[in-house]
Specification:
45% of the residues lie in helices and 10% in strands. By secondary structure, it is mainly α.
């Protein structure tokens, strides 16, 4: 008959009990602790996303493995201990380097600011019964070589400020 090793377990009441368990369980507890810890850390703040492209999922997995491994090395070599979330935040700050990568909202300007926009107090829209062509649409249409019917827009609102037509 095979003898099973015994282990100590803490019961709900707080008392310890000696239990027998299979040898494979003892070996697992003794040698697989680091693998379980790595899996736990990988899933703690996971960046994995669904993707139909296999290489994208593989990329994110290896990136997370690199971050967790670098956190373990950092924790072993540095005196200040950071948890994984604080380490990720610090890593992101270091990679970004204080730069802001945000696109400006709206359409980019095509040229220098005109005098018309620098003095906004002199320009205001007025109601007009004549409905002239829109200055902006007409200019863009002529510039792009469009037919008159493609760019002709009529409006009741016109600006009567200096330099406006």
């Amino acid at each position: 008959m095979q003898e099973y090793p015994t282990i100590d377990r803490v019961l709900k009441s707080g008392a310890t009990a000696r239990l027998t368990c299979p040898t494979t369980e003892v070996d697992y507890q003794q040698f697989m602790g680091a693998v379980d810890m790595a899996n736990r850390l990988l899933m703690l703040y996971s960046m994995m996303r669904k993707s139909y492209k296999w290489w994208k999922k593989l990329f994110w997995f290896y990136l997370e493995v690199c971050i967790v491994d670098s956190h373990v090395v950092y924790s072993m070599t540095q005196s200040d201990k950071l948890d994984l979330l604080a380490f990720r935040a610090k890593l992101a700050e270091e990679l970004i380097g204080g730069r802001i990568y945000r696109a400006r909202a709206g359409r980019p300007s095509s040229g220098p600011v005109s005098d018309r926009l620098l003095n906004p107090g002199e320009h205001y829209l007025e109601w007009s019964e004549s409905r002239p062509d829109c200055v902006v649409c007409s200019t863009v249409g002529k510039k792009n070589g469009l037919d008159y019917r493609d760019y002709r827009k009529k409006t009741h609102y016109v600006c009567n400020g200096p330099g406006c037509g």
